[in-house]
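Supplementary Methods S3. Complex input for the iron/sulfur cluster-bound model.
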Amino acid sequence: MIRPLHSEPILSEAFPDMKTAAQRVSEDSRKQKKWTAAEILVLLELPFNDLLFQAQQAHRAHFDANGVQRSTLLSVKTGGCSEDCGYCSQSARHDAGVEKESLLAVEDVAAAARAAKEKGATRFCMGAAWRGPKEKDLEQVIEMIRAVKALGLETCVTLGLLKEGQAEKLKAAGLDYYNHNLDTAPEFYGNIVTTHSQADRVDTLRRAREAGISLCCGGIVGMGETRAGRASLLAELANMTPPPESVPVNNLVPMPGTPLADAEPLDPFEFVRTIAAARIVMPASLVRLSAGRQEMSDELQALCFLAGANSVFYGEKLLTTGNPDTRRDERLFERLGLHAI
Ligand code: SAM
Ligand code: DTB
Ligand code: SF4
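Predicted complex, serialized as structure tokens:
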């Protein structure tokens, strides 16, 4: 039976004993296997069908195999960022044609969150193009979190590097998730970003975790890294204790005017392999098929779901680039018999 996405009750209503993401990940982390990059490379090198079979087994052991969680993203502060991340259209150091805007008003953010909820999103993620938030900006973001939380949505923000004490303020406002990606293998990070280090990002992840906030942390593939590099990024993510509750896997969207504008596109099967390996090494986490989905065929997306992806960004826009519109997603999910969680 094909169950329409919009009429499906959320999973916790359908299955009252279903665990929250944080419970699932923390219970699983007590028996957490530590992965070496070499072991993950072995996974990535398996015959495709064997890898997908293992990923399906891991997926079905932890999740409703046909459920997909939906998060809607809003850029609350666009462009003009001080950092030099080679993939990013919002860096003031690249000429990607993205205009610098000021922080949105709380009412506008609340209106966007309300619309996202009506369309079926369960989490609302607010992104800011900052190295990190200034105290005055943080106060306004806190008002946004309160307003979104009051709508009954899960809240997520991605604000860059956090200073001492900031994570606690976000938590007190009702923040559920902090998105901060490791982005690529530690040994490759310096090829992509020079204005901060990956260790700085690990520090922010620690601050968020210590404040009791769940983590949304993943990376980007297709930036010229090797397969061993992808294994190394996955090992770093999987060995966090506990691992991130949400793991976004972004396929590079090559933005004109950025240093990575002409990066060689990744073989789509390699992208699916990365999703499958993420599912195997972080079996209790939501694995999100993230940036680059608009450029993917329905068939490629279906392979990603088969490989264990069980979350997407939902709504026509990511931060500065496009995402499939909700009509295309509803049609695809209906054709695949996927339902909302
Ligand atoms: N400034 C904050 C930070 O760097 O964490 C938050 C915003 S930043 C744009 C959020 C994430 O978007 C990045 O860590 C990266 O993983 C992803 N991203 C940015 N540009 C991308 C692109 N062109 N293709 C794929 N992913 C991208
Ligand atoms: C994440 O891992 N991907 C999202 C979200 N976290 C903030 C961002 C994707 C950005 C894609 C490029 C753009 O729209 O500018
Ligand atoms: Fe700034 Fe984040 Fe873009 Fe880097 S990824 S340039 S920190 S907005």
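Residues 1-16 have pLDDT under 50 and may be disordered. The chain has one domain: 32-340.
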